[in-house]
Amino acid sequence: VNTVAYTSSVDIQRLLASLQEPAVIRKLAFDWPAVNKWRDLPDLVHENGHRLVPIEVGSMSADSGMKERLVSLRCFVSQYLGRSTTRPCWSLDDATESSNSNEIAYLAQHPLLDQIQSLADDVPARPCGLTPSNVNVWIGTGGTRTPLHFDSYDNLFVQLVGCKYIRLYHPDSTPCLYVNKNRSYGLQGNMSDLDCELEDFGQHPLAESCQFTEVLMFPGD
């Protein structure tokens, strides 16, 4: 993973066109209004708290799994996001401890900016001079984890609030990462059966030889 400094949208477009691997661009979006405004949870729900959003409640590591709910944005903030911020940091143990699963909730891959125009105004329509075909938002408490997967499309991933740990494997490792082709599990057939960070190499021996890169994303990256 390359780490580069932001210069101009033209330079960014050239970089993205030339790279054959992921790159981290630090503070690219640091001046986006969302980076500052969305940290203020009361302000986030002041005008839009009545809007309904889909969330997943629970931990992917828990036996009970995750349950889908449709709640108001105000409910999501008051019952989950607000409580989550009382911890200075969530460890892997916190994320996988079954007793904490009722505190974990995730608004995942949702076109929130299409739904709420005032939030769309906080994010550039053409980031880096690009015109994305789809724009989705993820908002989660501490302890949210996404299964190992690959995307069938290119991404411009922007961290707005908080920090996110990302683990990246080289595409050449795909045959050793136990991709599950059952589309009821992942609609694109792109999800791995390997539980990252809690690997069972007895069950998935090929994955033990796979190298990976770890990345921490901070607000504005």
Produce a short descriptive summary:
The protein is 21% helix and 21% strand.
Indicate the radius of gyration in whole angstroms: 18 Å
Approximately how much beta-strand content do the residues carry?
A: 15-25%
Low-pLDDT windows of residues: none
SSE class: alpha+beta
- Helical content band: 10-25%
Counted by DSSP, the helix tally is 7
What characterizes the major β-sheet? 4 strands, antiparallel
User: How many beta-strand runs?
Assistant: 10
Termini distance?
Answer: 13 Å
Reading side by side through the largest sheet, how are the strands ordered?
Answer: 4-3-5-6
Mean pLDDT: 89
Order of helices and strands: EHEHHEEHHEHHEEEEE
What does this structure look like?
This protein is an alpha+beta fold and 221 residues long. The protein is built from seven helices and ten strands. It has helices spanning 9-18, 33-37, 41-46, 73-84, 92-96, 112-115, 117-120, and strands spanning 2-5, 23-26, 52-57, 67-72, 105-110, 137-140, 164-169, 179-180, 191-192, 212-217. The strands form four sheets. It has a four-stranded antiparallel β-sheet with strand order 4-3-5-6, covered by helices on one side. The chain has a two-stranded parallel ribbon with strand order 1-2. A two-stranded antiparallel sheet has the order 7-10. The longest helix has 12 residues, at 73-84. It is globular and about 50 Å long. The relative contact order is 0.17.
